[in-house]
């Protein structure tokens, strides 16, 4: 999912989508999955020279991916759709006055607790941390620099920074992260039920469709092993006063009202693959320097004053 946090941030994307030709390119790729440049130009009845500029703009905004295929397509540039969902925040809470906002980003290696089982591993952008499939290395000091970690079952838990001003309650929590399943090697069709817990309260389950390694992640280091997981999906977990949502779809009735979070609360976010899940397909978390987004776990808190007498 491509997340546009305000209108100014989305200007270039809106310009790109303002072209009928570029929209038709996306529609064509959605239908055919992937096509080389000659095939696209022929279908749209435009020259390769004209097509090149449109493809470049679509690639620059992260809507499509262009790879070199010297086997099946005769040394052609092959295009495929990279993002199928776009979330645009037209007006932020800061602008509408409905509370104040605190933001933070947690590196994926900065977990406060863990229990992992092989297959598992952890790596920085420069080197593996210890040996693969040995949970002991999740305690290695270098984990603070980690850009990727994976496990077949178990959990990692993060202490979410809560430095809100005194007398404030939390109305909404948003977490965005790049995440996927964990298969031996990789497998794009490898479902896994990943449970999200806040302060040990299960707030919902999302089923990851696979562990993606069919193409190199945009930010994944060049030295990374071609037969391993390369990128994940950007997911947005939101807990507000009405329930819990993944990418806008409600997954439970657990709300911030029920959780009773305020400026004094310790907030612990846990990602778990439980042994009794219907699909025990592991989990991979991508952080800075890996995957398609190069980010840690981004946190957004909307807060407002508590009622008098409840402080």
TrEMBL record:
Cited InterPro entries: ArsR-like_HTH, HTH_ArsR_DNA-bd_dom, WH-like_DNA-bd_sf, WH_DNA-bd_sf
Q: Which SMART domains match?
A: HTH_ARSR
Residues in HTH arsR-type domain copies: 2-97
Query: What GO molecular function annotations does the UniProt record carry, in alphabetical order?
Result: DNA-binding transcription factor activity
Q: Name one Pfam family in it.
A: HTH_24
The protein's superkingdom reads Bacteria
Q: Where are the transmembrane segments?
A: none
Q: What is this protein called?
A: Helix-turn-helix domain-containing protein
Q: What is the lineage of its organism?
A: Bacteria, Bacillati, Bacillota, Clostridia, Lachnospirales
């Amino acid at each position: 999912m491509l997340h546009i946090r305000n209108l100014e941030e989305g200007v270039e994307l809106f310009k790109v989508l303002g072209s009928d030709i570029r929209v038709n390119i996306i529609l064509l790729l959605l239908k055919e999955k992937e096509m080389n440049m000659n095939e696209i130009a022929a279908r749209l009845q435009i020259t390769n020279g004209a097509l090149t500029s449109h493809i470049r703009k679509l690639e620059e905004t992260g809507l499509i991916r262009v790879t070199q295929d010297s086997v099946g397509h005769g040394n052609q540039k092959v295009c495929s759709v990279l993002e199928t969902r776009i979330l645009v925040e037209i007006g932020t809470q800061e602008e509408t006055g409905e509370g104040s906002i605190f933001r933070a980003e947690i590196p994926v290696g900065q977990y406060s607790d863990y229990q992992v089982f092989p297959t598992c591993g952890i790596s920085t952008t420069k080197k593996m941390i210890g040996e693969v499939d040995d949970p002991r290395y999740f305690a290695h000091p270098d984990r603070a620099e980690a850009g990727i970690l994976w496990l077949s079952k178990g959990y990692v838990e993060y202490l979410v920074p809560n430095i809100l001003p005194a007398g404030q309650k939390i109305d909404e929590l948003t977490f965005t992260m790049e995440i996927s399943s964990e298969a031996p090697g990789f497998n794009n069709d490898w479902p896994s039920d990943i449970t999200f817990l806040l302060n040990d309260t299960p707030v919902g389950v999302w089923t990851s469709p696979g562990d993606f390694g069919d193409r190199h992640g945009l930010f994944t280091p060049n030295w990374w092993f071609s037969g391993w997981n390369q990128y994940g999906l950007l997911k947005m977990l939101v807990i507000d006063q009405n329930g819990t949502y993944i990418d806008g779809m409600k997954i439970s009735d657990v709300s911030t009202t029920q959780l009773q979070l305020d400026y004094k609360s310790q907030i612990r976010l846990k990602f778990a693959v439980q042994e009794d899940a219907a699909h025990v397909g592991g989990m991979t978390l991508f952080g800075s320097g890996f995957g398609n987004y190069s980010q840690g776990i981004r946190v957004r808190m909307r807060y407002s004053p508590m009622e008098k007498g409840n402080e």
